[in-house]
Amino acid sequence: MKENKYPFLGNFLGVAEEEGTDHNEFVCSMPVGREVLNPYRIVYGGITATLADMAMGWMLEKRIS
Fold first, then answer.
1. In this structure, is the dihedral angle defined by the CA atoms of residues 30, 51, 15 and 29, taken in order, positive or negative?
2. Model pTM?
């Protein structure tokens, strides 16, 4: 497990900040493997919501600091 200031769940899912092309833009990503896919081979909604929630938190943290 990575040791950084980000939450356990983000590290567990492999969420990472990416380089954006604009300072008003925030980009993050996570790997999509079989373990996060539902039986229809679509990413589980909870995983998608977690990624959105973490991106929102990181973006706000960067804007405030």
1. positive
2. 0.78
